[in-house]
Each structure stands twice: as structure tokens, then as C-alpha cells.
Amino acid sequence: MKIAVAGLGYVGLSLSVLLAQRHEVRALDIDRTRLDLLKARKSPIEDPDISRFLTEKTLNLHPTDDPAVAMRDADFVVIATPTSYDPRTNRFDTASVEAVAETARRLAPEARIIIKSTIPVGFTDQLNARLGTTSIVFSPEFLREGRALYDNLHPSRIVVGGTDAASETFAGLLREASLDADVPVLLCGSREAEAIKLFANTYLAMRVAFFNELDSYALFHGLDSRQIIDGIGHDPRIGRHYNNPSFGYGGYCLPKDTKQLLANYHDVPQTLIRAIVEANATRKDFIADKILERQPARVGIYRLVMKAGSDNFRDSSIQGIMKRVKAKGIPVTVYEPQLKDDSFFNSPVERNLARFKADCDVIVANRMTPELQDVAEKVFTRDLFGAD
Q1: Domain contains 386
Q2: pTM for the whole thing?
């Protein structure tokens, strides 16, 4: 097969590497630095499996910034460009997806177009109607940052929003690249596939919000959160997974996906979906107040990244804590080795960890780490289980 993949973030890059083991993949992006790294077989994102595959595997992978080169004679065009949530319109900004789809229809009119970017429910039908085609389908991804290729190699399920032969073929491409036997494959309607993605992420956000609010209750009343979570987690209907308190759900997916799902409910009665969205702000307010109770002279923000093994700090929950603390007039210093700038939202960035520890009398860390153990008395964290 000849496959074009547009957008080389976590989703597009992991998919490109996955499929290039058996097929010709032309990886399209507008970021020349990212393309140059990929041409040198270096991963532009932090993902150990992608790095290993690029250096150790024989991959039929061709990075390019030319849509014509990428899409010419393609059997499939996969769109994995970002769709950030626009609060002005209460929906995802799908302009990049639409632009790539229009280009694909022009350059590769026989290709099946697969959208991997997260989109609103009903978007695929609308785009097909506008472009006068039925060749565009949606296939949600369920990947973790830093483990994207691993999750493609060991998928929990493969979902494609189409039931025709081309949709089945694409599902087969993903299944043949999997290292697991008997991966569930679901071929369904396009709107159902779009809903699967949004409801799955909203459920995960709901679980994060639940354990965070449990933790807030325990903190307020002087109870041991870990004992409570352990006690309820042994119920097999609840389970002991995805239960570590945090400063809120964050990252690229959960905040925007929950808001988009809420927007999709505009004509449907609901209370739970809105509560999930609003719970995040409530948790951050509570955590910021707990930090301020320590009466700090200077607060240190230890790492902006979402979790261990990730280089992404876009919409990380700790940023909300930082902004709330600064709003009360408390100076803040950021320790984040990934930052190239010397300031972040007008707060100084300190790259010397020892100096950072000495200068800050409270250190806020969403997740505890061994390099903070020597100043554990300064650290404010809700990491109870040492897990993401």
C-alpha cells in the first residue's frame, strides 16, 4: 500500500512508523525541523519505542513537506493534524483537517481519506457532503503521550467509522501491525466512531475528577486519601487503576474533548458532562488554596510536563495552579529543562535544580520524583501512588 500521513505529532508519527514496517509511508508535515530529524532517523518527540524503531527497524518511511509528493497515487491519506478547542465557537478548530481533506481530494481523488484527528460528532458526514464524496471516514486513536507507538503495537481495540471494503482494509492494516492476537475490530457508523472517541476520553476525565474530589474531601477533613482509595479500589467493579490524585486532568486531549462533548449536548438534557468540565477548575482552586495556606514567600513549579516520559506541557494541569498562585501576588519560579525561554508567563525559568530547591520554600510537583526526596518537606504534591 501507498499511505500518506499528514501531521507528525504523537498520532501521525506513531502511525507512520507503525505502517512503514510493511507499506510505503510518506510522512507530511510543515515543520522543517521535525522533518529533518525524521530524515536523520531521530524522533522529534519523546517516545522510546519510536526512537528505537527509527534506529533499528527497516522502515519504508519518506518525510516530506510537499503535499503532491506525499499524496500522489496514495491508497490512503491519513489526517492527523491538531484540532484545538476554540472557546469562541464552542467547538474544535477543524480548519487544518478540512484543508488537508480538500488537498487530498484534489491530488489523490481515488484515495480513501482517514481522519485520525479528534473531531465533533457529525463532522465526517458534513465534510463528505461539502466535498461531494463518501471517501472520508473517521478512525479514533487511543494513545498515551510517550507510549504512542507501544499503544499502536498493543491496541485495546481498532475502531473505523465505516463498514465498506476500504474501511475494512484500513482496519486490517492496523491489525496486521499489532503484536497482539485477536485485537477487537469495530466497524461502525461515522458518527458512532466520533462519539466513541469523545465519550471514552470524557469517561477517563470523569474518573480523574472523581478521585480528585475524593482527595479534596479527605484533605479538608484530615482523612487519609490513600486508605480510602485502596478500600474502594478492591471492588472489582471500580478497580485499582487510574486512581492516583492529581491537580486535575490536563494535556492535549481530555480538556478539549470534554468541552467538545459538552458542546455536542447543546440540545440534550445533561448534568454530568458539565460537572466533569467544571470539576477541573474547582480542583485547581482547592489545590491553590492549600498551597497558599503554607504562606510561601516563593513557590517553585517543578516540571510543566504532563507526566513522566512525555515532553508535552500543553494545557498541563500544573499551569492552572501556577496562575492561581501568581494571581495572589506570590512570586513563582519554574523548573522545566524542556523550556528554551528564560521565562514562562512572566515567571523566571531556573535550569539549575539545586538553586531551584534553595530559592523556593514550597515546591509544587504534580508527580513526586526521586530528585526531590532531599527537599521532601518543601514539596506539595497529591501523588499518592507514584504513578501517572
Answers
A1: no
A2: 0.93
